[in-house]
Every structure is written in structure tokens, then in C-alpha cells.
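Practice problem 4.
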């Protein structure tokens, strides 16, 4: 999908109070950014922000960091934050960066949970390493997750989901739970907050897959 460039996006991002402009400078200091010792959850590839904003609203005792590579997409999340429903939230920050650089932004064991929602499937085999659930990325996550830290992944793409299940096993992680039909799995669907894509695909009747994996000790 080709993203439309929005010229004003960079200016808004640079001025917005919730955006961390030099995130690498906060490595090891994210608790100071928030001013407390609450757990830190990050969403990689957060899109327009519906999921992470509603998570921050529902869980004021957790700090959230939304990571998005594309400025034009991050702009939409910031516009959503600036609405009456979310503008008072103090437990959320945003970063515009490539997920490949997470180790430069977060210190070892600084993150408690990672959310991956409807990530790009990169369908061509030669691009498998770019998938956010590949062993290459799991290795990166392992370096920043705390002991017992988890990755939660949702997608409607069954092929990508099966690939992800295999990668979790290959990486030596612990597959705690998984389902091929989240919305009809009562235990895993409890408290589920939907993304924009999740709502769209569910309305079409597409089942949603979800897995929860814990980093190896």
C-alpha cells in the first residue's frame, strides 16, 4: 500500500507534546519520561492509534508508547489524541521510528509487553525477515523485554499467523495461548480492545487470530 505524503505531518510531529523527538536519548530512562514506575507497554506499527489510545484510557496504571514508522500515519494518531476523549491522557507517548531500531531506544528489560496488531504480512518469501514476528525481530524484542515479558500479536492473515507460530517455536519462546477465532474464544477475548483493521475485518466476517508468547528465560 502506498502511503500519501502529508506535508504538514513533520511539523505537527515536531511540535506535539506527546512525541519523543530523540527517543534514543531516553534509552534506560523511560520511567523518568513518565515520572513513575508503572509498567511500560509498547505497540509497534500502531497505525492511526485507536488501539493504543483506548488501552491507555482503560489502563491508567500502565505507560504506553506507540511506535509508527510513517509520519503521515502518526499524524492521524496525534489528531485522534487531540480530541476531547483522549487529550487528558498522561500515560502515553509516541515515537516515529523504524522497528528495527528498538534496541537503540530501549534498554535491556525496560519494556514489559509488546503489542503487534495487523502487521504488514510481507507475503514474498524473500521478505520474511521483515515480518515483525520473524525470529530476527523476536531476538530484538527479547533484548528489551523484562523477565516474563510478552508479545501479543493479532492478525486476520492466517498464513502470517501460522508463520508466526512457527517462529515463536523456533526462537525458543513460550507460546502461552493462541486462537484462530479470537472473538469466539471467551477467555482470550475478555477485555479485548479492537484496532481499526480488526473492526473492518470482523464486519466482513473474517476471523481474528491471536497469540501470546513469553520471552525465553
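Answer key:
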Amino acid at each position: 500500500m502506498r502511503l500519501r505524503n502529508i506535508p504538514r505531518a513533520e511539523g505537527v510531529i515536531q511540535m506535539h507534546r506527546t512525541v519523543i523527538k530523540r527517543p534514543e536519548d531516553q534509552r534506560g530512562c523511560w520511567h523518568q519520561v513518565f515520572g513513575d514506575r508503572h509498567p511500560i507497554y509498547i505497540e509497534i506499527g500502531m497505525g492511526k492509534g485507536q488501539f493504543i489510545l483506548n488501552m491507555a484510557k482503560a489502563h491508567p496504571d500502565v505507560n504506553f508508547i506507540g511506535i509508527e514508522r510513517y509520519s503521515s500515519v502518526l499524524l492521524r494518531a496525534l489528531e485522534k489524541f487531540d480530541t476531547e476523549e483522549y487529550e487528558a491522557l498522561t500515560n502515553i507517548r509516541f515515537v516515529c521510528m523504524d522497528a528495527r531500531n528498538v534496541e537503540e531506544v530501549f534498554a535491556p528489560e525496560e519494556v514489559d509487553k509488546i503489542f503487534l496488531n495487523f502487521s504488514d504480512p510481507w507475503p514474498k518469501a524473500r521478505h520474511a525477515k521483515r515480518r515483525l514476528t520473524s525470529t530476527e525481530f523476536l531476538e530484538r524484542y527479547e533484548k528489551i523485554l523484562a523477565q516474563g515479558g510478552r508479545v501479543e500479536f493479532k492478525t486476520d492473515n492466517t498464513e502470517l499467523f501460522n508463520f508466526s507460530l512457527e517462529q515463536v517455536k523456533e526462537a525458543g519462546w513460550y507460546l502461552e495461548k493462541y486462537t484462530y477465532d479470537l472473538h469466539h474464544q471467551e477467555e482470550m477475548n475478555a477485555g479485548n480492545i479492537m484496532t481499526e483493521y480488526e473492526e473492518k475485518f470482523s464486519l466482513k466476517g473474517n476471523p481474528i487470530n491471536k497469540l501470546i508468547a513469553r520471552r525465553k528465560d
